[in-house]
């Protein structure tokens, strides 16, 4: 057999890229590279966490240059990995074939940094020489495989530990996986076609008339409703920005933000609504038009971080310490002892997010525009 099935480029059921593009066959192929270390990463939820977990990929490729990395996730996360050459194969938990493959293949290293009852059974069954993260014990309980995974598991179990934590999510995930944390960036890559499409939007909306563009992401997802800032706060902030005609404002959000974004766009005619029913990739490419992004602790935060934007992030019930700022994120939060509660129901008349003032955010915008160092507000 002339096929070299151990090649990293061999897809199994179709011609490889060199054969398709250049007609090259295995005996004469200069692209051949045998699979080195086989690594499996299992990270299913949530979209924002899947995205920021990609920060472990650069160090893995530095340590194991010839490695073959497979990532198991959900179908809704597939667009995160588009154009990402650091991952060799994406599998989806919804596909039964993927689960079957995981039970047949052998891996050198399994990284499962998520104490999830959904993915732990698979992590337990996978045949890997080394496992890092979490599996199930014989009683069906989640347990850490390595000592470095204990801290995160206990933070999930005890609110007291979560509130005291000063480590970023990226540092914690690296430690769970036994990797040295060097502040590698979140990995998100726009294609040239996507850049061209967003440039077309830029031209059509005449955004070149502005010196700076601020993107305001008004939502915060469905799970943590108290991560969302108040609508009247956005109104007040926009009113403060409006006299500065050199600044353009783009509105961002998902389907849940349709009503509030429409309300703001109807009230302020100069706002540019980017839409709330965009695909994930379109959302990323339009977000890339902004110089400054204002958002809560949600997917937009991690996407804007990956796109290397200046960011003003508003925090309430979730941990601001867990966010790696990379020197570009200004964190705004209320001066309250109850922060980092992770509650889905709040008994206070004015919530922690409600305590954040438009004036504080506006001051932060001015500091960024004036290149003044700012971090926590």
Number of strands: 12
Global structural class: alpha/beta
The helical percent reads 25-40%
Number of helices: 14
Total number of distinct structural domains: 2
Indicate the topology.
Blueprint: H1 17-22, E1 38-42, H2 47-53, H3 57-63, E2 68-73, E3 89-92, H4 96-104, E4 106-112, H5 120-125, E5 127-136, E6 142-144, H6 150-157, H7 159-164, H8 169-176, H9 192-204, E7 212-217, H10 231-241, E8 247-252, H11 258-267, E9 272-273, H12 280-287, E10 292-296, H13 299-306, E11 310-315, E12 329-333, H14 358-369
Parallel strand pairs: 1-2, 1-4, 2-3, 4-5, 7-8, 7-10, 8-9, 10-11, 11-12
Antiparallel strand pairs: 5-6
Helix pairs in contact: 2-13, 9-12, 10-14
How would you describe the overall organization of this protein?
The structure is a single chain. With 377 residues, the protein is α/β, with parallel strands linked by helices. It folds into two domains: 35-176, Rossmann fold, CATH 3.40.50; 192-369, Rossmann fold (3-Layer(aba) Sandwich), CATH 3.40.50.2000. The protein has 14 helices and twelve strands. It has helices at residues 17-22, 47-53, 57-63, 96-104, 120-125, 150-157, 159-164, 169-176, 192-204, 231-241, 258-267, 280-287, 299-306, 358-369; strands spanning 38-42, 68-73, 89-92, 106-112, 127-136, 142-144, 212-217, 247-252, 272-273, 292-296, 310-315, 329-333. The strands form two sheets. The chain has a six-stranded mixed β-sheet. Strands 9-8-7-10-11-12 form a six-stranded parallel β-sheet, sandwiched between helices. β10 (292-296), α13 (299-306) and β11 form a beta-alpha-beta unit. α10 packs across α14. 36% of the residues are buried.
